[in-house]
Amino acid sequence: MFRFNEIKEYGQPYIIAEIGSNHNGDMELAKKLIDAAKASGADCVKFQSWSKDTIFSKKVYADNYFLRDDYRNRTDYTLEEIVDEYSIDRADHYLLKEYCDSIGIEFNSTPFSKGEVDLLVDELKVPFIKIASMDLNNIPFLTYVAKKGRPVVISTGLCGLADVSDAVQCLRENGCEEIILLHCVSIYPPESRMVNLNNIDMLRQTFGCKVGYSDHTLGTLAPILAMGKGACIIEKHFTIDKNMKGWDHKISADPAELSVICEAAGTAYQMLGSYQKVVNEDQERRDAFKRSIVAATDIKAGEVFSDKNLDFKRPGTGIEPKYYDLLVGRAAKHDISRDSLISLDDF
């Protein structure tokens, strides 16, 4: 039923609908988002597992640094209150996992602490661990994650290539046998010049890992182009209402956009095909479109073939034009009428 274990380079991309905190702390809304992601064709819905104690220090709460967008001018909310409201507790994790199982879509979530890793892996048995790019340089955390024996999918935004290298080395040295890197630009949304989809090729060639794409652009173009780069995972923020209050709704795909991405995923990898040159047209069609050597004029018996009395026209059932030089200079055995295909019997 689930496709994560079938992920391969240049195969059908595995589509993650990144719900994150777009449930706004409402589990009924979370179920509606899961239903919509399933209906749109996503393989997986992913949440974020954090609490007010595992994501920010007291300095961030004191500064209210992330209190912006819908909350920018609000005085009745503090960042700590919003984080507490939007977090998912242990019971909610079980509820969401069971609901996903019941409708046939994969559940996962990004952990922000060791305890959340334990919940997701040891209790909820998620098939892979998704690491946010903010933890790419968190070597102690990555060491703990690697020892869980699960594939790790890790976003590469926020950090340079040296940090990616350190993270990959840490995961491999601590027993992680499957690493999937996600090219990512952690700006919401990035300008087109920042997207750099060629990094998908670069990461694959540099680290020998499978590579996907975590998208924060508006619309569907970037993830579809990433499929053309052979991205094995496409992760896209998802909402059912872009006008809803919250951090990520405005930059998220809605059901119509996610459907476009999922439909593209079903055909893009087939269109990429292989590096072999395959002739798909049948012989009848090839003959109809190719050209043959023909008489450009009426040719008399004994007349020498030259560029003055030969031409190239459809169909391609006669002598191919590539043999033209072998024909020039030879004499016609008999009269040949204009526009007739030249045959071996004619000289």
Low-confidence stretches: none
- Overall mean pLDDT score? 93
What's the story with the biggest beta sheet? 8 strands, parallel
Radius of gyration of CA atoms, rounded to a whole number: 30 Å
Number of contiguous helices: 13
Strand order of the largest sheet: 3-2-1-8-7-6-5-4
Extended strand count: 10
Range of helix content: 25-40%
Find the structural class using helix and strand composition: alpha/beta
Proportion of residues in β-strands: 5-15%
- Which H/E pattern describes the elements? EHEHHHEHEHEHEHHEHEHHEEH
Q: Terminal Cα separation, in Å?
A: 66 Å
Shape: elongated
Task: Summarize this entry quickly.
The protein is of the alpha/beta class and 347 residues long. It has helices spanning 27-40, 58-63, 79-86, 90-103, 114-123, 139-146, 161-173, 192-195, 199-207, 221-228, 255-272, 283-289, 324-327; strands spanning 14-20, 44-49, 106-111, 129-131, 152-155, 179-184, 210-215, 233-237, 292-295, 310-313.
Q: How would you describe this structure to a colleague?
A:
This protein has helices at 27-40, 58-63, 79-86, 90-103, 114-123, 139-146, 161-173, 192-195, 199-207, 221-228, 255-272, 283-289, 324-327; strands at 14-20, 44-49, 106-111, 129-131, 152-155, 179-184, 210-215, 233-237, 292-295, 310-313. The chain contains 13 helices and 10 strands. It has 347 residues and is an alpha/beta fold. Helix 6 (139-146) links the parallel strand 4 (129-131) and strand 5 (152-155).
